[in-house]
Amino acid sequence: MADLTSNFVGIKSPNPFWLASAPPTDKKYNVERAFEAGWGGVVWKTLGEAGPPVVNVNGPRYGAIWGADRRLAGLNNIELITDRDLEINLREMKEVKQNWPDRALVASLMVPCEEEPWKRILDRVLETGCDGVELNFGCPHGMSERGMGAAVGQVPEYIQMVVEWCKQHSNLPVITKLTPNITDVRHPARAAKNGGTDAVSLINTINSIVSIDLDLMAPTPTIDGKGTHGGYCGPAVKPIALNMVGEIARDPLTAGLPISGIGGITTWRDAAEYIALGCGNVQVCTAAMTYGFKIVEEMIEGLSNYMDEKGYKTIEDFRGMAVPNVTDWQYLNLNYITKAKIDQDLCISCGRCHIACEDTSHQAITNMVDGARKFEVIDEECVGCNLCVNVCPIDNCITMEEMTTGSDPRTQKPIDRDYANWTTHPNNPMAAIEPAE
Ligand SMILES: Cc1cc2nc3c(=O)[nH]c(=O)nc-3n(C[C@H](O)[C@H](O)[C@H](O)COP(=O)(O)O)c2cc1C
Ligand code: SF4
Ligand code: SF4
Predict the structure, then answer these.
(1) Helix (H/G/I), strand (E/B), else coil: 270
(2) CA 20 to 30 Å from 204, out of 53, 142, 147, 379?
(3) Any idea where the 4Fe-4S ferredoxin-type domain is (predicted)?
């Protein structure tokens, strides 16, 4: 049986599934129930400075988008950092750590961008016995207007400075949580590394307005007739998060920097994908908020079964295996030729593939053959784009088949099995000077 234990920057947990800093980790009651359900660790809901607690809105704080079956696809929130008193949070964190010594407990922090407040809060969280700190440079709303969260996370120099303070004033491992609300995530990641961070975690939520209420003429969630942008998360953000994780994992300037993967993780497979892209562990928020703490059971079982099937004994056995296969477009093999193929036994003749290809692609799928309704790929027109596969409602009904011999009926060119990319392509005016990889 696979060994799921995790050692992320020296923080040990029985499995790599942590709850991300958010409502599920806002209090002892939640966290202890999460640990009972099997979560390997938690990043406590972000703590702020001592003083009057943060004030949240008292109306709706969530918006959402759903799939056709009303399953939650994306969640948007306008919540701030913890609105509970700092002392209560610290006391509860200490109790939880004492009660659950084998679980990871990380304190998420967000205080004004000055050395003293950071030093003060670090001294306080140290007393809880927590295993590390996560610096919240990500919150996109409410706190950034006060010069914290994403406001800091969008300025690499500030990130580096705050990380340096934290490393200087604490011996705890420092995880720097990055905001996705930036053009190139490699810059804040490099800054965090230069500041001496032990790891980065990403992503925090994405700036968003999920919908406009057309009766109220205001964004949702609506508070007394007005709305504001919120932070987007859940399954819909996973592709964005994976790309950002991949960018950091393959950047030579941050290669090897431990990464905690966050964003839309709902199943063991999502988690495995993050690990394959280099993450040492994963954090989950929306899935727990949607389905409850027990989803971790399926995550643990699914990941364990997958690893057993593949013969991976530990997380490290497959961590980062996909990183070398993430490349730039120019290095993709232009000699790799595929054609769509429709399994006539599975086809229910809905016609979606025909319409998609006919109206928007390459007119490469029939709807009538010999006077009868039939959907067949016309190899002479098919460019192998894969659109039909994605619109077909039946799994595996359309597959992409690689051509390995003969010639491509569309271009009439013989199939060449040798790898050739854009850097050497005759149509590339830069071909002579760009090095092939
Ligand atoms: C209601 C809500 C509150 C959140 N509060 C925090 C927070 O206090 N600190 C923080 O670092 N991230 C916060 N997050 C972001 C999550 O930790 C996580 O980065 C994000 O939701 C993406 O993960 P997910 O797709 O699994 O939800 C919050 C998210 C939600 C939905
Ligand atoms: S792969 Fe693209 S071009 Fe080929 S049949 Fe499908 S949609 Fe048409
Ligand atoms: S979309 Fe799929 S099921 Fe529908 S006609 Fe095309 S191949 Fe058949």
Answers:
(1) helix
(2) 53
(3) 338-371, 373-403
318 & 340 share domain: no
Mean pLDDT of 174-201: 97
Do residue 167 and residue 312 come from a single domain?
A: yes
Count of the separate structural domains present in the chain: 2
Q: Is the CB of 384 under 6 A from ligand 2?
A: yes
Answer yes or no: is the C-beta of 135 below 6 A from any ligand 1 atom.
Answer: no
Average pLDDT (11-38) is: 98
Residues with catalytic annotation?
Answer: 139
pLDDT at site 435: 55
Do 112 and 223 belong together in one domain? yes
| Packed helices 156-169 and 115-126: angle between N→C axes, nearest 10 degrees | 40
Q: Atom of ligand 1 at shortest distance to CA of 204?
A: 19
Ligand 3 centre to CA of 346 (Å) is: 8
Closest CA to 76 of 66, 67, 87: 66
Q: Which residue is closest in CA terms to ligand 1's atom 5?
A: 22
Instruction: Write down the pTM of the prediction.
Output: 0.95
Longest dimension (CA), the chain: 80
- Residues 116-127: pLDDT tens digits? 999 999 999 999
**Can you tell me the distance from the alpha carbon of 301 to that of 297, in angstroms, rounded to the nearest whole number?**
6
User: CA neighbours within 13 Å on the CB side: how many for 109?
Assistant: 31
Q: Residue 431: inside a domain, yes or no?
A: no
Provide the CB-side half-sphere exposure for 80 (13 A, CA).
19
Q: Which of the 8 DSSP states describes residue 172?
A: S
CATH no. for residue 338? 3.30.70.20
Cis peptide before 203 (omega within 30 of 0): yes
